[in-house]
Structures are given as C-alpha cells and as structure tokens.
C-alpha cells in the first residue's frame, strides 16, 4: 500500500524535515448514545468507501461483546467448545473478537485483515476492577491499539474505527472513544438520532468531549429521520452546524427512517430470551416481525383460530402461555392444514384442475409462536413428539417446515415487556437485514465530502492528536 494513504502526526515545530503530502486520516465513528444506528452507519460507510477508495481497514479499538472465531477459516466457535477445538487443532488459533468486527470482516470479505488485529482491547466482566486495581494500565491498552492500527493501516487505503457507544464510553479505563481517536490521529464522525432540540443537545455534549482531547469532527450523520420532516430537519441541522463553536462541521448524511431495520428476527429473540428453545421453523429464523405484528393470545381456541385464518394475520408473532395447550395444538393443526391445502392446490394446478380455494393467491403464511412459562408449565411430551416427527419428515421427505415455535422459560408479562423494549442488533448471520441496511443508508451519505474532510490539512502549529489531556 502507498505510504501516502496512512496518517502519521506531523513533526514537531522544532524538527526540520521535508514537507509531507496530504495524508488520509483514520475515520472514527461514534454515536451520541445507544441505539442510534452506529453499526449500521459503519456498514454503509465501509461499503461506500470500498467502491471509491479500494482496500478498507476496520478496527474496533475497544469492544465489549465478543465472539470466538477461527483465524484462518472465520468459523464462529461456541464459547464452551473453544478449548476442545483448540486442542483438536492447535495450529489454527481461535480469536476472541468483537462481534461488529466479525460482522464487517465476513460481510465485506476483508481477507487482507486478521481477526487478531481488529479487536485489540476487549472489556469482559471484571476488566474495570482490574484496571482500577492497577492490573491493567492505560499504556497497555494504548500499545495494543497502536499495534493493531499499524497492522491494519499497512494493508489498507482507509481505516475505519468503530467506537462503542457515545464518545465518553470507556472513560472508566482511560480509553474513551475520544481518547482513542486522539491516539490514532483520527477524525470523528458523530452519529445521532433525528430531531432538533434533543439531537443538538446530545451532539453538543459529544462535541465538547471530543474538543477536550483535541479530536476534530469530520461530520455528522443523522439517522431515523421521519420522511415528512426530512426537509425541515435538513435545513435546521445544517444551519445549526454552521455555528462558530462547530467550525462549520458538515452534515454528511441524513437517513430516512426504515422501521424494518429495528424489527427483531426469531434468531434475535432466541438470544434475547436466555434458555429458550426453537423447536420448529429453523429455516425461518431470520424472519422479522414488527411490534404491530405481535399478538398476545388471551381468547378461546375458537376465537384464536378465527383470527389466525384472517388474511390480515398471515404474518403474526403470537405469544401464548404453556398452560394453553389448546392454543399450541390449534396453531400446529392450522399449519398442517394449510400445508395440505397448498400441496393439493399445487397438484391440481399442475394437472389442469381447479384449486380447492383461493389460498394460492394469498401471500405466504408467515406466522410464528412464542410459548411462555415453559419452566413452570412444561409443554406436553406428546406435543413435542408431534413437532419432532414433522421436523424429521421435513428433513427426510422435503415436507413443508412448520412455522417457528420458540419455547421460553420467562413469564408472559416479562416476555411482552422485553419484546416492546428490545432493539435488535445487526449480526453476521442475518444477511438480509445487513444488505437492506447498507442499500438504504449508503444512498444518503456524501462520501466525496467525507473523503475531503479526511484529507484536509491541520491549522499551523496545532498538530492533530497532540492536544490531548490524559488521566
């Protein structure tokens, strides 16, 4: 890679050296708070930069949620199986790597990067206490991050660093996003949710913290903008960012809201409800449901079946307690009857006969069910055997799979509360949502302006990344 594309701080004023050409600085993406779409924004940025620049490096300097992954193959290993897998093949190291780094590397096939470099500092349980007790130092962390960045920058044209949360996250171990950005000489992109008052207040808090560590802001990206308020939001935020305290920081992107991206898939709910078991419908684990498509069953079986058979409920996530065996059986029987009708209609059409009903013209049935309270009220063994037999028929004879049925230990009240409060995160397995997010976001980001901001010279006498105040 051409050295001109890697940023290094300019020499001190007392040093005599040949003037260097402009250098492209690392890009550091940080949010103003949780759940504003930082990882989604990073995905879109990597995609857009890849088309314009070439090799993109990705670094998650400080991570919290990690996966275990084989360095050579990229296969994710269950935590309980790590020691067994490592003993089986000691020549193939298994790396603990932040989940967002795994997502980015696998989705964009960044073969020039190593998992071992992409996530230098991980903060597991107990890490903060160890830091406060002096078992880990700031210099330890800084060295790891610098070494990882150097490795990635050596094989990349642009390095994108993704932070964790807002710019002050990590302060407790003296490795906040703003501090790390200053160590790397990176320019910050702040990601915030749409609005005016609250949005600008949150941006200001993060701007001041960046300023404290001498980190310049390349621009701002605003997510989840209501379509009917798009023009208004663009006008006022653009004007607000021209205030002298912001130094005319540009609005790099204004992303219209896309509710689908915040909808959980069945796989997300498996992770959300610990101890849960998906007993059927594994083929549909990445089917997503909106809050409006969740239906708590508190009616008679007759009323439930009447609801299930309405076309408006063909895509519904039902929630029912395990004590309602009649509801679960009714759901299973409805699924089997629909499969039988679909098979009959398909055969009738191929032989030139008339279809039994108009089901073939309706959208596919995409219902699912969460059965709650299974610890206190276990699902009957007879019902579980029915499900297992149908699953076996699906595997052996190609029968239509049953809809997803997720057995959850928690109470109905707890499940409904968590469903309505839950914000799903992107993961490397949910390719459909990842692709949808990238294609939606990428079109609304000004990449040319972003690249311009990454290659601008610093004011004389104020080397970037040196104006930091460390603990």
Average predicted confidence as pLDDT: 86
Distance between the termini: 35 Å
Radius of gyration based on Cα positions: 26 Å
What is the number of helices? 16
Structure description:
The chain is of the alpha/beta class. Helix 1 crosses helix 15 and helix 11 runs parallel beside helix 12. The longest helix has 26 residues. The protein contains 16 helices and 16 strands. The strands form 4 sheets. The chain has a 6-stranded parallel beta sheet, with helices on both faces. The protein has a 5-stranded mixed beta sheet with strand order 12-16-15-14-13, sandwiched between helices.
What's a concise summary of this model?
The protein has 16 helices and 16 strands.
Helix and strand layout, with pairings?
Layout: E1 27-31, H1 38-52, E2 56-59, E3 62-63, E4 66-70, E5 76-77, H2 82-88, E6 94-98, H3 99-108, H4 115-118, E7 121-122, H5 127-132, H6 138-154, E8 158-166, H7 177-184, E9 187-193, H8 197-212, E10 217-225, H9 230-240, E11 251-256, H10 266-272, E12 277-280, E13 294-296, H11 301-308, E14 317-321, H12 325-350, E15 368-372, H13 381-397, E16 405-407, H14 412-421, H15 431-442, H16 447-454
Parallel strand pairs: 1-8, 1-9, 2-8, 3-7, 9-10, 10-11, 13-14, 14-15, 15-16
Antiparallel strand pairs: 4-5, 4-6, 12-16
